[in-house]
Amino acid sequence: MRVALVFSSKNGMAEWLRLKKTGEVTEEDGEPPPDMYAECDSDETIRAIIQALEERHEVVPVEADKDAYDRLRGARPDLVFNIAERLFGSSRESHIPVMCEVLDLPYTGSDPLTLGICLDKSRAKEILAYHGVPTPAFWTVEAGEPVPDAAALPAIVKPLYEGSSKGIADNCVVRTRSELEERASEISARYAQPVIVEKFLSGREFTVGLLGNPPRYEVLPIVEIDHGLLPRGANPIYSYEAKWIWDTPENPLPIFRCPADISAALEKKIRDVVERTCRLLRVRDWCRVDVRLDEKGEPNILEVNPLPGILPNPEENSCLPKAARTAGYTYSGLIHRVVEEAARRWGIRS
Ligand SMILES: Nc1ncnc2c1ncn2[C@@H]1O[C@H](COP(=O)(O)OP(=O)(O)O)[C@@H](O)[C@H]1O
Ligand SMILES: [Mg+2]
Fold this sequence. Notes:
With 350 residues, the protein is α+β, with helices and mostly antiparallel strands. It has three domains: 2-107, no CATH class; 137-199, ATP-grasp fold, A domain (Dna Ligase, domain 1, 2-Layer Sandwich), CATH 3.30.1490; 205-346, CATH 3.30.470.20. Helix content is 35%, strand content 19%. The chain contains eleven helices and 13 strands. The protein has helices at 10-22, 43-54, 68-75, 95-102, 112-119, 121-130, 177-191, 240-245, 264-280, 319-326, 331-346; strands at residues 2-7, 58-63, 79-82, 138-141, 155-159, 173-174, 195-199, 205-213, 216-219, 223-225, 256-257, 285-293, 299-305. Strands 8, 9, 10, 11, 12 and 13 form a six-stranded antiparallel β-sheet that branches. A four-stranded antiparallel β-sheet has the order 4-7-5-6, covered by helices on one side. Helix 2 (43-54) crosses helix 11 (331-346). The longest helix has 17 residues, at 264-280. The chain starts with a strand and ends with a helix. The chain binds adenosine-5'-diphosphate and magnesium ion. Adenosine-5'-diphosphate (ADP) is lined by residues 136, 156, 158, 162-166, 168, 198, 200-201, 205, 237-238, 290, 292, 302-303.
C-alpha cells in the first residue's frame, strides 16, 4: 500500500506557529514555554515509524500543518497513519481525521468525534459517568470563573484539554482552598483554557494499552506506575517533571512495572473497565487508558488517550510500546498491527 504518515513534529509545529502569528516566517518572537512542544513527535519517533511502515509499504511523510490537506489530496494514499496531535484547541487532534474524511481517505485510529471527546477530559468523563463507569468526581472551571464551593479536597488541577502531562506539574495536587484557587487561575491563564478540578485519588496507578476493535479488543499487559519510587518529597502523580525531567534515557526513572504485580481479580476488574470505556467512547485500533484505584480499591478511569505516545526507544519509558513489548510485539509489529486493524475496518487489503 501507499501509506501517508501524518505527524506533528516539533520543528514543523514551531514553523506553523510562527506563520500563524505573523503571516510570514520571521525570527522567533520570545521563547515558548518549556512544555509547548511536549506532545509533538520527535524526529526519532517519526523515523522509527517510517522505518517500520517501509518494511511493507511505500511511505509518504506529511507534516500536519496548513499544507497537509493539499499534500494528502495530491498523494492519494491507500491509508493515512495518523499520529498528529497538533498544538492548540480542543479539536486539534480531530483536524487530520476530518481532512481524511473530506478526502475519502481511510485512516488509522479513532474518528474526529472520539478524539475530540477524549481530549476534553470533562466531556469524556461526562459520558463515562452517565454509563456508571467509575471516574473521579470533577468540576470544570471556565476561564475567569470561580472554583465551585463544592470542589472536594485534596484535589488535582489540570488543564482541560492538554496531554503528555502538559500543565500537570508536581504542585497541581492541592490540599487547601487557597492553593486550589491559585492553581486553577494560574493554569487557566497559562494554557488559555478552562481547568478541570478532580477529587484526588491516592491509590495505585496503572496505564493500560489496547489494540484492535470491538467485538474484542486485545488488552495489553497492564503497566503500574509506582509513585513510591519518585524522587523523595514529590507528590504521588505522574507529573510533567516525572515524565520529562526526572526520567531521561541515561537515567530512567524506575517507576514502571509491566506486567503489574496485581491479583487476578484486580487485573480482571481493570481490564473490564478499560474495555468498557473504549467501547463506550468508540475507540478504534489503538489506545492507552489511565486508571487509578479509589479508597475502596475500585479502578477509576483518569483519562483516555486514543492517540497514545509511542516513543521507540525502550529506555524512554513510553507505556504503550512497553506494554506491547511485554506482549511480544516488536516496535514494527505494533505499527503493523495498527495498520492491519485499520485496513480491516476500512475494507482495504493491507
Ligand atoms: N484524579 C486524580 N487523582 C490522582 N491522580 C491523578 C488524578 N488525575 C490525574 N492524576 C495524576 O496525574 C497524571 C497526569 O494526569 P492525566 O489526566 O493522565 O493527564 P495527561 O493527559 O497529561 O496524561 C496521572 O498519570 C496521575 O498520576
Ligand atoms: Mg495521562
